[in-house]
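User: Hey, quick favor. My workstation is busy. Could you predict this chain's structure for me?
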Amino acid sequence: MNPNEERDRFIARKLNEGCSLAEVQKLLAEELGINMTYLDLRLAAADLQVDWKKQDAAKPTQPAIEPEQALPVSESRTRVTVSRLVRPGAAMSGEVTFASGAEAEWFVDSYGRLGLNPKPESSRPTEADLREFQVELQKKLGGQG
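Assistant: No problem, here it is.
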């Protein structure tokens, strides 16, 4: 048996057990010593006999923000602006000043992916900053801001 056949059987078995691609990627490295990029793993898995319905069932649902975690609108200290001039390669962009004081430029690319570019000399935003930013951005883009 060639090494790719063993690898492919391992991948198919783990995916059919309900492991995510990220989990399979980690297990390949730990158990077989095979390092694959996520894209290479995804491409290899596409050719295998995998019950993808198990993958959908195994995905945990996003935990809802608990009421004590949600910030009332009046208490939000994160400031989001939407630029009138869109940066090249973006569908929309703007700036954000997080409650922690960190600052960044944000953008949404043509595929709808959100990205952040921290400003030079700025600290990194915290997880709470990022959650609050997403809420504030949704308000701005939804016309509520």
